[in-house]
Every structure is written in C-alpha cells, then in structure tokens.
Amino acid sequence: MVQAGCDRRGRAPRDDHERCRSDQAARGGESGAQARQRDSVGGVVVLRAGARPATSVVVQFIDDHRDRFGVEPICRVLTEHAVPIAPSGYYAFKTRPASARAESDAELVVQIERVFWDQKLGRGISGVRKVWRLLRREGIVVARCTVERLMRQQGLRGIRRGKQFVTIRPDPSSTRPPDHVQRCFRADRPNELWVVDFERHEAL
Length: 204
Hints:
flat, mainly alpha, 2 strands
C-alpha cells in the first residue's frame, strides 16, 4: 500500500490535485475567481507570478479582449497585476514594422509547409531532419534548429518509423473497480485517504 499523494506509475498527479482543489473550493462555496483574486478581464488568468510575459503575448491578450473591455481598462488591470503596459506602448507595438527575424520566419514557414505537405517530398509524414534536408536540397539555407522551432510552432510532426509497442491492452468487457475518491488523491491529514495499486511483473 502507498499513502495518498504517491503516484507509482509516473503519471502527472498535478491535474488530479488541481481538479481536487477545484472541487473542494466549489463545495466550500468559494468560487475559483474569488480564491485566486482574478482580474476583471473575463476572469482569465494568463499572467502568473514570475518573469513578465513577452510583449507579444501581452499584446495578443489585449487583442483577444479589446472588443469587450477596451484597450485602456485592460492595460490598467495588467499594470495593477505587475505587468506594466501603457495604451501608447500597445499601439506602438502594433504599428511597429515586423522584425527581420519575423519576416524570415514567415517566409520559411511557407517553404516548410510546402515541403512537408508535398506528396512527392514530405508527404505529410516527414520529420524535422527530412524536411531540413529537403529544404537544403532546394538551396534553402536554414539551420536545423530553426526548422524544428517553426515546425513545432505550426504543429507539424513527422511519423516515427518502427513498431510501436503497446504495454497495456485493457479489456473493455471487464468490470472496473469503482473510483471511490473520484481521482482526488490529496489528503488534508495523515491516515485520511489510502489507495492501493497492483503491479504485475512477468517471471524471467
């Protein structure tokens, strides 16, 4: 047996803990917005403690909500939450010409998507290395790390070769034990919650 909070199979328990805390807050009559003191911009928290987000991220956030709240109120709320940005700074960023890197990335994305989806070249299954080599073959000089970054940005992923091993094959007809804790593995005190897990090892 293992005590609450342990996750022996390596699954990320954080999601379960977050869901558990949300359920506990709801049962306590306290809304998530009150518990976290969210701002008035739709109750959306995109600015957390730590380093200031990139200006492009802040500007995109303002763009997403300006029609509903207006630029100046959003800038005021962001500034109150340790993300200082003035309306003039927002408009200056919007009117600023694109950087050389941004223009280069935009051109490379067009070429990468063309090669990736071409039925005679990438066929929609090529990975970073293959796409990078195809671009170089066409005389497009670009670093491999740049191709990797832009493919990740565009959501382009290659298909890995080789057999995919499936270690667990659940039986849909079998009866599953009831989940008495509703995936909530967080305990407020010792001996409040105990869970058990079974692990099978084949004899060699």
